[in-house]
Design a protein that fits this description.
By secondary structure, the protein is an alpha/beta fold. The chain has three domains: about 10-40 and about 240-290, no CATH class; about 45-115, no CATH class; about 120-215. The chain has eight helices and ten strands.
Length: about 290
């Protein structure tokens, strides 16, 4: 039997990295700092905001339904925000930080006013990181965290809800919901009846999406996962834009070159860096030096 920890692991975020730029995939998912042996992560205000809002909302799922909104979510939000204040959240000024902080508070107030499915029973997958063999023959594991699973008692089924804190809508060809459908289907016993995005900045309710076909989703995700596995075997991860790099890999190259500021260690033992202005990065390292 194949050992899962020597397998190739893929997730929605790592697949997104690979599709946008193989070099960015390498720097986000494989590269380790020579000194700390940790992965690297570039923090940004949208990323920091999303982390804290998700943290507050996801903490509700373990509480009894009658207790979830007994206290204001803003109190917990204020406490959690301290962990990303200043450069730790990628903020370049107090004005910028206050703008993002207010944006997150507005999202949580919207949820408190319109809790909808968050007042219903929730299902928790019994894994810290949901995972399963996408293909044991190919030694590929699929993993990922689901924001919320609403229990639908009339169908004994679940509703996948993904919280969105950004301002852009998810692309129609995104693999996020197909991947989440596969994960939920394969890591707990109830069927998935619905999938939705909840755009917290401007919507009072989740927006239901077309339920992805499981067989087609598996084929689509496995095809990309096999390409990732081959690239890892060949150990060649080049930016399609050449040595000048692209928006996805250039900021990460700046970390490798020592141009970013270390601001802390994340919950998954990754080194987190702050870069005041990625638009100023004009020269990148020779890609071959890190392959």
């Amino acid at each position: 039997m194949s050992e899962k920890y020597t397998a190739t692991w893929v997730s929605h975020s790592s697949i997104n990295d690979f599709l946008s730029c193989p070099r960015a995939y390498y720097l986000n998912n494989i590269y380790r700092d020579a000194r700390t042996h940790h992965k690297i992560q570039l923090i940004s205000p949208p990323l920091a905001l999303g982390q804290i809002v998700h943290q507050v909302l996801e903490s509700l799922s373990v509480l009894p339904t009658e207790d979830r909104f007994r206290e204001s979510l803003i109190k917990q939000y204020e406490t959690a925000w301290s962990s990303i204040s200043g450069k730790r959240g990628g903020f370049t000024s107090s004005a910028q930080e206050n703008e993002y902080k207010q944006r997150g508070a507005d999202m949580l107030r919207r949820v408190m006013k319109n809790p909808g499915p968050l007042q219903s029973l929730a299902v928790k997958i019994n894994q810290d990181l949901p995972q399963y063999w996408l293909s044991q023959q190919d030694e590929i594991m699929l993993c990922g965290k689901i924001d919320w699973l609403e229990y639908l008692p009339d169908q004994d089924a679940v509703h996948i809800i993904d919280f969105k804190t950004g301002q852009r809508k998810e692309n129609i060809d995104s693999l996020q919901l197909p991947i989440y459908h596969l994960l939920v289907h394969n890591t707990q016993h109830r069927k998935v009846a619905k999938v939705s995005y909840w755009y917290l900045a401007d919507s009072d309710i989740p927006q239901e999406q077309v339920l992805p076909d499981l067989d087609q989703s598996e084929k689509d995700v496995l095809l990309i996962a096999k390409k990732i596995k081959l690239q890892r075997k060949l150990n060649v991860f080049k930016c399609p834009h050449g040595e000048q790099g692209c928006r996805a890999c250039r900021p990460l190259e700046a970390i490798v070159q020592g141009k970013a500021e270390f601001v802390g260690t994340g919950s998954y033992q990754q080194d987190i860096y702050y870069l005041p202005d990625t638009s100023e990065i004009t020269d990148v390292a020779d890609n071959s030096s890190l392959l």
